[in-house]
């Protein structure tokens, strides 16, 4: 049962559409009121589950019940990790000061690690005004992360953490010295020079130059493992994990100046342009636009026109605008923006570092917003009418199913079945078929098995049959589907195949009909083609997702062994760097690239492989 099933009658129609197509990834959600006012900002490990929980009838607090009555719209921003979601949530709360975020109205800041000045500095947890002289490292994503890091550093470098008054009045070492958590500088057991070396190592660690610390722990872990001291090795492994957690740097905050980063996504005749606003080195929000795309429009032309319209219509113009593909009229736009702002404005591409991560962040959220837009569009009926006309069907297809096959080198083959009606995707009716008993890599046999299992059951149980079935593939796949339908005597179902054509380009899809040798080619602005692209892409996405889940569930060896381009040495480097493959799976692209021998491009491939 869906989390909103118990209370579905009272949910506003526009909210129902949003809830039906939420991402299951980590991110931040904004509850908006009637006039676009931000009522509440929250973070989630799983956006779909968390946002839907607000609309469950039981177990609502009075505050949540009141909040729900005001909600008119919900905006979501997808992040790679929970930490990024937490930091973005904090930025947005400070910016909008939502009235329902009562727990954050005290303006608490994130915690820091404080290293005091003097001959024998102390290391301590700090929150609040930075009045005392010394070095402040942070901010950190949570209080527990700071305290755990202090405990770890205390074990590694044995820097004192006691108050100055306690330190000044000691005549003999305390218990911290006995348990090897401190070198007892209070009684002169360590020289100022030696203590300074440990202090310098601590500074390097918190400045991100900590590979020497990690390598030391890795060596100890390897030695313990070789000596069969597995409990000790596990302790070092856990320390490496915690140290990686402490060192975690987020895409949400950085040191760059004010800029707007623009993400663009296009599919099925719809364009999404998403602006991410960077102010004082932090993401403070984003805004999404869906410009109307005229027939035969060039995507670069659309983006260029939008930039001119947006920034020359009164919007704030930052010093820098970052976009992945620079427009042809770059110089003209820069000059116009500079005149409007009154100072120089630069349009540029992101080459590396923090800005590159922000560009990736913008692109991913543009894709997410586009998918949500496609799934919630109100013109599905018009698309289906156009599909009826293009395929010369007697009636408009109100129930359409599409099939796709996914496997890895012929292993763990799965088939997906996605279902659309006049309102869009019906995700509750999606099905996955684990294929067995066929030759590895035989997509024809896999399709035949999936179709047989699906429609034999529907026929035998006298359940409603689809009006149209689409198989992802050309004449070969279509022929297998036709065989199945003939065997099951399913004469009423309209059947087509979809292939990408010789160039395999989007927009060049070929529509195949049973018994015909020439495919149908639709105009690239055809609503029927957009519908076919949408349902085909959704079937492919669902098949890939479930295939990956199947591999994870049944694998007896590390998922890392299946990633192309990651050999034994790189696997070992990743495992030693993170302490386990689950930690690799939970890391961001930047964190994966921090492992020895892993380039940024390979890190992106690893991340995509583990999360697609």
TrEMBL record:
GIY-YIG domain residues: 24-102
One Pfam family hit: UVR
Stretches assigned to the UVR domain: 211-246
Signal peptide start and end residues: none
Tagged with keyword Acyltransferase: no
Cellular compartment(s): Cytoplasm
Superkingdom in the source lineage: Bacteria
Family indicated by similarity: Belongs to the UvrC family.
Record function comment: The UvrABC repair system catalyzes the recognition and processing of DNA lesions. UvrC both incises the 5' and 3' sides of the lesion. The N-terminal half is responsible for the 3' incision and the C-terminal half is responsible for the 5' incision.
Name by which UniProt lists this protein: UvrABC system protein C
Species, as recorded: Kangiella aquimarina
């Amino acid at each position: 049962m869906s989390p909103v099933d118990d209370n579905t009658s009272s949910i506003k129609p526009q909210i129902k559409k949003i809830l039906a197509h939420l991402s299951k990834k980590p991110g931040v959600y904004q509850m908006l009121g009637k006039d676009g006012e931000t009522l509440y900002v929250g973070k989630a490990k799983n956006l779909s589950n968390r946002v839907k929980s607000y609309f469950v009838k039981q177990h609502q607090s009075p505050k949540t019940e009141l909040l729900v009555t005001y909600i008119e719209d919900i905006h979501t921003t997808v992040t790679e990790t929970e930490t990024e979601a937490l930091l973005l949530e904090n930025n947005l709360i400070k910016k909008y000061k939502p009235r329902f975020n009562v727990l954050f109205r005290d303006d608490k800041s994130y915690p820091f690690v404080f290293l005091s000045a003097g001959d024998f500095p102390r290391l301590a947890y700090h929150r609040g005004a930075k009045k005392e002289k010394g070095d402040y490292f942070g901010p950190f994503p949570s209080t527990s992360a700071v305290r755990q890091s202090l405990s770890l550093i205390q074990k590694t470098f044995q820097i004192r953490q006691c108050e100055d008054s306690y330190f000044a009045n000691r005549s003999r070492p305390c218990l911290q010295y006995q348990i090897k958590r401190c070198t007892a500088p209070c009684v002169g057991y360590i020289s100022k020079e030696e203590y300074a070396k440990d202090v310098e190592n601590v500074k390097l660690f918190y400045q991100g130059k900590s590979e020497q610390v990690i390598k030391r722990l890795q060596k100890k872990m390897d030695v313990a493992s070789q000596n069969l001291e597995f409990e000790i090795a596990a302790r070092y492994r856990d320390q490496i994990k915690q140290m990686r957690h402490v060192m975690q740097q987020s895409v949400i905050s950085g040191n760059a100046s004010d800029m707007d980063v623009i993400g663009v996504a296009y599919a099925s005749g719809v364009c999404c342009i998403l602006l991410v606003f960077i102010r004082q080195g932090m993401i403070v929000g984003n805004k999404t636009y869906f410009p109307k795309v005229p027939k035969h429009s060039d995507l670069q032309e659309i983006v260029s026109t939008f930039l001119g319209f947006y920034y020359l219509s009164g919007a704030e113009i930052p010093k820098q605008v970052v976009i992945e593909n620079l427009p042809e009229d770059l110089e003209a736009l820069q000059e116009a923006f500079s005149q409007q702002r009154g100072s120089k404005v630069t349009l540029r591409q992101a080459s590396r570092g923090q800005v590159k991560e922000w560009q990736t962040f913008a692109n991913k959220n543009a894709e997410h917003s586009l998918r949500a837009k496609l799934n919630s569009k109100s013109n599905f009926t018009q698309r289906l009418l156009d599909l009826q006309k293009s395929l010369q069907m007697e009636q408009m297809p109100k129930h359409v199913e599409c099939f796709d096959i996914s496997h890895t080198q012929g292993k763990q083959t799965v088939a997906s079945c996605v279902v659309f009606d006049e309102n869009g995707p019906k995700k509750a009716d999606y099905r996955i078929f684990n294929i067995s008993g066929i030759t590895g890599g035989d997509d024809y046999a896999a399709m035949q098995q999936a179709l047989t299992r699906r429609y034999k059951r529907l026929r035998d149980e006298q359940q409603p049959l689809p009006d149209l079935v689409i198989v992802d593939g050309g004449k070969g796949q279509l022929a297998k589907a036709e065989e199945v339908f003939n065997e099951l005597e399913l004469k009423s179902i309209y059947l087509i195949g979809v292939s990408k054509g010789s160039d395999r380009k989007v927009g060049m899809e070929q529509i195949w009909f049973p018994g015909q040798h020439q495919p149908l080619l639709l105009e690239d602005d055809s609503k029927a083609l957009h519908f076919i692209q949408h349902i085909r892409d959704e079937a492919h996405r669902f098949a890939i997702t479930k295939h990956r889940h199947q591999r994870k569930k049944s694998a007896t060896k590390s998922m890392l062994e299946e990633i192309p381009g990651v050999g034994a040495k790189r696997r070992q480097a990743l495992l030693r760097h993170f302490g386990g493959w689950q930690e690799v799976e939970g890391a961001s692209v930047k964190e994966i690239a921090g492992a020895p021998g892993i380039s940024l491009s390979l890190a992106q491939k690893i991340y995509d492989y583990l999360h697609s």
